[in-house]
Design goal:
Elements lengths: L7 H5 L14 E4 H13 L4 H10 L5 H9 L4 E4 L3 H14 L3 H5 L1 E4 L2 E4 L12 H10 L6 E5 L5 H9 L4 E6 L2 H14 L5 E5 L13 E6 L6 H5 L3 H4 L15 H8 L1 H4 E10 L5 H10 L3 E7 L5 E7 L5
Parallel strand pairs: 5-6, 5-8, 6-7, 8-9
Antiparallel strand pairs: 1-2, 3-4, 9-11, 10-11
Helix pairs in contact: 7-8
């Protein structure tokens, strides 16, 4: 996907550093030169945090290193791509609103670096907390778990790494998402531990109904009217299938909750992510479905973002 670029000496008349491991020519330059280039890029628009993220993920310049350059601009800096290539990505981001994660093809999440591409939801940082909730809710590894609406496979990978040797199931309606999840599962070394299944929520798991001791889900939960007003980078480029939750944002959540009493094993846990203002409604849905020990949980910013509940045990 990448084309070979001119060397740093050809482009700028400056010294050339060693090429990165993927064979794309890099660039060695003085810190003050990098900072001047960064200012020029930001003069065209965009957020400094986004450009610094691009420098990190696509240019191989970690944020702490960039901060040291601010303190001492005389230091030399090694980029793994030339500035011309990075600037082309930045201009594309500004002109099309295409998320940088799609342009770079990667997204850091938890302790992973996931491949991402158009058609698959970009993993959000707050979703990491579903993994922590799963770990805290189960006293011992589950016999079997499932991830409904796996998307990039981020939750499935994290659960597989949390409980090595435990078989998991990951469901998604989108063939694009399943293909992306498979690539990420294989790259993480857990491909044999997770079975990918195409279908809608609980339906493709019928053969495992009543035996799932943990089910996690990050379903589409944004109300349609809210989705229509999202920033263009999200609305125009990320899959509506993974975002639009219907008129009140609860259509998919209702389906997930409705299947829990039959799909979960006795005593099994259901963990959900939802919109910032849906906690009371989701708690009510869980209770009406006959689930017990329902709880609400906050995200990294203190917002009620998650719900947990379990199926009652047999008498």
């Amino acid at each position: 996907m990448r084309k070979t670029l001119p060397t740093a000496a050809d482009a700028d008349g400056g010294p050339q550093g060693p090429p990165p491991s993927d064979g794309v020519p890099g660039e060695l330059l003085a810190g003050r030169e990098l900072l001047a280039w960064r200012r020029r890029c930001l003069a065209s628009g965009g957020r400094a945090a986004d450009l610094d993220w691009l420098l990190d993920l696509a240019g191989g310049l970690p944020w702490p290193t960039l901060q040291r350059v601010h303190l001492d601009p005389t230091k030399q800096v090694q980029l793994t791509r030339q500035r011309s290539a990075l600037e082309a990505l930045w201009r594309c981001h500004l002109e099309t609103s295409k998320p940088l994660q799609y342009l770079v093809g990667r997204c850091p999440w938890r302790d992973l670096e996931l491949q991402v591409a158009p058609g698959v939801l970009i993993p959000r940082q707050e979703t990491e907390l579903l993994v922590e909730l799963a770990r805290d809710r189960l006293a011992c590894p589950p016999a079997r778990w499932a991830d409904l609406g796996t998307g990039s496979g981020c939750l499935a990978i994290a659960l597989a790494r949390l409980w090595p040797g435990v078989q998991g199931l990951a469901v998604d309606l989108s063939p694009l998402a399943l293909a992306q999840a498979e690539r990420n599962l294989q790259a993480a070394g857990v491909g044999e531990q997770v079975q990918l299944i195409q279908g809608s929520w609980w339906q493709p798991l019928r053969s495992s109904w009543g035996r799932l001791e943990l089910v996690v889900a990050n379903p589409p939960y944004i109300p349609t009217a809210v989705w229509a007003g999202l920033e263009s980078g999200v609305r125009e480029h990320e899959p509506v299938l993974a975002l639009d939750g219907g008129a009140d944002g609860l259509e998919a959540i209702r389906q997930v909750v409705a299947g829990a009493a039959q799909g979960l094993a006795p005593g099994g846990w259901l963990l959900l992510e939802h919109h910032h203002d849906q906690s009371p409604a989701v708690q009510e849905l869980l209770t009406l479905a006959g689930l017990v020990e329902t709880s609400a949980h906050r995200d990294l910013e203190g917002t009620w973002r998650f719900a947990s509940a379990r199926r009652g045990r047999r008498e």
